[in-house]
Amino acid sequence: MKISVHDIFFVVVIFIIFECILFLGFQQFVFGNSKKEYSDNINKIDLSEACLSEEENETLNLINKYRKENGIADLKAITCLQNVSKLKAEDLINSDYFSHHSPNFGTPFEMLKNNGINYKIAGENLAGNINPQKAVDAWINSESHRDNILDERFEYTGIYVIDSEIYGKVFVQLFIGI
Fold this sequence. Notes:
The protein is an alpha+beta fold and 178 residues long. The termini are far apart. The protein is globular. Helix 2 packs parallel to helix 5 (132-140). It is built from 6 helices and 4 strands, in the order ααβααβααββ. A hairpin with a 3-residue loop joins strand 3 and strand 4 (168-177).
């Protein structure tokens, strides 16, 4: 039996097609389930309303007023983000730094992930100031902070305010969109 180049080419093409079909099926199985699991995890986020202090509530009201003036829906303060905001604020004070990257907990995104919070988009605003009005004014006057405040994709927030010997008060605001 003599095998021609045409026969070899035909077998190779069939093999490639077969492998592609198997790979696509495997890809759908793996990535399809991952998307479903991710979606299920998003739905498991505790969206219970956060209990805010007077200063935190004032900060949220000022931010939502600014969002409303710009045609954007209010942010809702939720407990899980409030807890991570508190963790970050206390870390800023206790570890004596002022940065989005914590030497103890990493980036805000790592902090959210390590605390079981899944999201499609996230952000963080930090401020050191004497009261909520001045902190929000400073954020609005900073392009990157204002962009977080006005990002329509952000739906939920956590805001924590803590006294600071250096700044008067430290304000930590986390944002997520799911």
